[in-house]
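Propose amino acids for all 244 sites.
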């Protein structure tokens, strides 16, 4: 009788395993899958020596979206690495394309997840335009100790294009006196200046692209002023569900 019970329990376990066990285990077919992929910007133009960061957004079957730019399931490729190679399968910086020579390329983001293949493309034109002028805004500003401000660098190109190069890999930021004010020169926070002590500093943005050197400066005064009031605007607002 004991042998029969053991055989019955063993058989029951095999049946449960084949059926996926209890209701909370087994295959989860309810997980959302990727139904479409979009790469932005879809069309862009950059000069030789400059970079453009592409973002990949996946739309899921449950209606939500997800930034998959750095997802391990996604691979980035360029149709011609001699014109514009792109970073792929790294811990960070995926989707960063850099202009090497004049021409046009197709950037493709593709992958597979949950048995589903997906892909999207973008077009990039690399030009031989050079920087004729670099501008920093604001050119003069005042900041209290401990507070920060985002500076913006714009390159005016020989073809008339104006390019925001604040966070571009071709541009470096520096402060004439980091003991008074520091400025970030890497990552997504490039161009953010922070007051350390009272005084004045010169902030410089500079770089080189397509054999052309360029630079611009801005003046920042750090004061000992303290915060006396904080205000939020708007004080009253109305917003529909799903909007931000």
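Proposal:
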């Amino acid at each position: 009788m004991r042998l029969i019970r053991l055989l019955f329990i063993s058989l029951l376990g095999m049946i449960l395993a084949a059926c996926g066990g209890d209701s909370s285990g087994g295959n989860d077919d309810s997980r959302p899958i990727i139904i479409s992929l979009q790469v932005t910007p879809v069309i862009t133009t950059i000069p030789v020596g400059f970079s453009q960061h592409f973002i990949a957004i996946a739309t899921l079957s449950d209606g939500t979206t997800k930034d998959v730019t750095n997802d391990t399931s996604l691979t980035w490729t360029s149709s011609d690495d001699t014109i514009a190679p792109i970073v792929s399968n790294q811990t960070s910086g995926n989707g960063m394309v850099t202009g090497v020579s004049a021409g046009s390329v197709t950037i493709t983001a593709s992958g597979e997840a949950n048995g589903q293949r997906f892909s999207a493309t973008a077009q990039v034109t690399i030009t031989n335009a050079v920087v004729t002028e670099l501008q920093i805004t604001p050119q003069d500003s005042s900041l209290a100790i401990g507070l920060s401000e985002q500076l913006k660098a714009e390159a005016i190109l020989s073809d008339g294009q104006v390019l925001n190069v604040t966070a571009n890999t071709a541009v470096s930021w520096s402060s004439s006196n980091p003991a008074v004010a520091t400025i970030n020169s890497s990552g997504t926070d490039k161009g953010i200046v922070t007051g350390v002590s009272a005084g004045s500093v010169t902030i410089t943005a500079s770089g080189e692209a397509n054999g052309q050197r360029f630079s611009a400066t801005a003046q920042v005064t750090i004061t000992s002023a303290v915060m006396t009031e904080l205000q939020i605007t708007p004080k009253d607002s109305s917003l529909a569900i799903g909007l931000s």
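The longest strand covers residues 116-127. Residues 6-27 have pLDDT under 50 and may be disordered.
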